[in-house]
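Researcher: I'd like a candidate sequence for this fold, 399 residues long. If you have to choose between options at a position, lean toward the conservative one.
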């Protein structure tokens, strides 16, 4: 496959910017254009629900120093509205056409809305961009009544930041345990207790019926009064461009093969939107994680330049809430896989493992930082280990 003359990347988030960096690192010397709807030099999202909200950082980390963009044609404030595969052209919102030899789609996700009455009231916050984070931070003052809808990662992190800033915080979710979908009831319970210990109130097991100027109306007829309402009910991958172009979709994302190539051989998709045919897992993997955006961005550079290496990294993510820090590697089904814990759930210092058919599917270290490399190796290998071994041996002794 001949080296492309012109690579176009749509999306200036972590995945798109990492792809641009890796293309230059690999010595690609042709035209390289990155289109981004936002007007900011590419930045990373995790601090938006942590240090930026807490006031511990002025803004998020940037993916590259400004000088990097002397080598890249970064077009900020430009939205791409169509891709014409047959013509190898993308079209921006002014109607201007931009040709490509290879196209990388890295359009990320958009926070989901709740289809209930009052969802269009002003004062409802979502969290995706630096503007969202700064606008919310202004409202998180001592004594403010904050209602967080959604007990997932973003909801829990926002609750922790708001409470740390002295707000009165209530979190509402129809599930009975926060983070249950990813961690299951036992480990999710650790987060419930952590937040309770810091004075966060839970309204679990009940959904939201609507929003009012005074707060949130719940399905059981009760109301939670709030000055500030934050929606953290998940994000939808931005697949419209790909869908309208006629690219194959799968599992809610853009279908890509093991090397991150989409159904058109000159198009690739990475980051939140990529539904990846992962060689280590049955079926496709689509995750919304910082590491996935960064690593797929780096990997796709090789694919764009003609390599056909599979992307093999196991999913990895992290979270920080109050004094709890954790890392999770792999992909488990917490309702069906077997949970094994080494350490103390009560002290919030432990490693949780999930086993399926005697093989390790995922591991999560909480407030323990020495075992990352060993846990990564065990999860990558889907190691055959017994519950007893996991409970008693240090991860490094099992590799
Ligand atoms: C508040 C927050 C906290 C997070 N914290 C963590 C964490 O602690 N740990 C973790 O592992 N993960 C975390 N994540 C998830 C992680 O940051 C994302 O999975 C990752 O940033 C996805 O990167 P991306 O490049 O695919 O998408 P994005 O970062 O969403 O970037 C996509 C970019 O493309 C632009 N775009 C979209 N469509 C177009 C178009 N048509 N034309 C031009 N530009 C377009 C968008 O405006 C956006 O700037 C967090 C996410 C959020 C929102």
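Model: Candidate sequence:
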């Amino acid at each position: 496959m001949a080296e492309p003359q012109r690579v176009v990347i749509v999306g200036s988030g972590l995945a798109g910017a990492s792809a641009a960096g890796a293309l230059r690192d690999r010595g690609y010397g042709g035209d390289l254009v990155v289109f981004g709807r936002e007007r900011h030099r590419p930045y990373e999202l995790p601090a938006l629900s942590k240090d930026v909200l807490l006031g511990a950082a002025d803004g998020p980390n940037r993916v590259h120093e400004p000088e990097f963009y002397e080598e890249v044609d970064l077009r900020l404030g430009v939205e791409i509205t169509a891709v014409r595969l047959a013509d190898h052209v993308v079209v921006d919102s002014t109607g201007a056409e931009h040709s490509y030899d290879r196209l990388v789609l890295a359009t990320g996700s958009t926070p989901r809305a709740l289809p209930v009455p009052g969802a269009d009231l002003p004062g409802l916050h979502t969290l995706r961009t630096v503007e969202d984070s700064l606008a919310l931070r202004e409202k998180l003052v001592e004594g403010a009544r904050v209602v967080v809808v959604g007990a997932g990662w973003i909801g829990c992190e926002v609750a922790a930041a708001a409470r740390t800033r002295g707000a009165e915080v209530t979190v509402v979710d129809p599930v009975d345990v926060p983070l249950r979908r990813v961690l299951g009831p036992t480990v999710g319970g650790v987060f419930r207790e952590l937040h309770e210990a810091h004075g966060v109130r839970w309204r679990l097991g009940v959904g939201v019926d609507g929003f009012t100027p005074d707060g949130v109306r719940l399905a059981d007829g009760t109301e939670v009064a709030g000055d500030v309402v934050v929606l953290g009910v998940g994000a939808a991958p931005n697949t419209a461009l790909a869908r309208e172009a006629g690219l194959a979709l799968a599992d809610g994302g853009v279908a890509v093969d093991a090397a991150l190539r989409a159904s058109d051989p000159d198009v690739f998709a990475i980051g939140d939107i990529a539904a990846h045919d992962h060689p280590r897992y049955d079926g496709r993997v689509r995750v919304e994680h910082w590491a996935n955006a960064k690593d797929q961005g780096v990997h796709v550079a090789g694919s764009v330049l003609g390599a056909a290496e599979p992307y093999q990294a196991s999913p990895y993510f992290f979270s920080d809430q109050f004094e709890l820090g954790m890392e999770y590697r792999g992909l488990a089904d917490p309702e069906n896989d077997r949970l094994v814990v080494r350490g103390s759930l009560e002290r919030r210092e432990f490693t949780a493992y999930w086993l399926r058919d005697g093989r390790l599917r995922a591991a999560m270290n909480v407030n323990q930082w020495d075992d990352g490399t060993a846990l990564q190796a065990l999860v990558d290998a889907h190691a055959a280990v017994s519950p007893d071994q996991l409970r008693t041996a240090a991860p490094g002794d099992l590799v």
